[in-house]
Amino acid sequence: MKLLHIVAFLLVVIGAINWGLVGLANYNLVEMLFGSVSGLVQLVYVLVGASGVVLLVTHKGDCKICSKM
């Protein structure tokens, strides 16, 4: 379960950085890295979204601060 948490966290961070770059500079890092392989770009977006759901569901158990609430 720890590996799933680490992978999900990294994908969410990558997604957040990508959205920040899109908002600030209209620069999409994912599309720049994977180019015209739209299936791969879509897969990255799905994995980032799924990672967000995983963190949402497991956050309270994984977070030391939230688990005390």
Explain what this protein looks like in three dimensions:
There is one protein chain. With 69 residues, this protein is an all-alpha fold. It has three helices and no strands. Helices cover 80% and strands 0% of the residues. The chain is elongated. It has one domain.
- Strands, count: 0
Q: Name the poorly predicted regions.
A: none
Describe the main β-sheet briefly: none
| Alpha-carbon Rg, integer | 14 Å
Beta-strand content: under 5%
Assign an overall shape: elongated
Please give the alpha-carbon distance between the first and last residues.
22 Å
Task: Please give the structural blueprint.
Layout: H1 2-25, H2 29-34, H3 38-62
Helix pairs in contact: 1-3
Key attributes of the depicted protein:
69 residues; mainly alpha; 3 helices; elongated
Structure at a glance:
The protein is 80% helix and 0% strand. With 69 residues, it is an all-alpha fold.
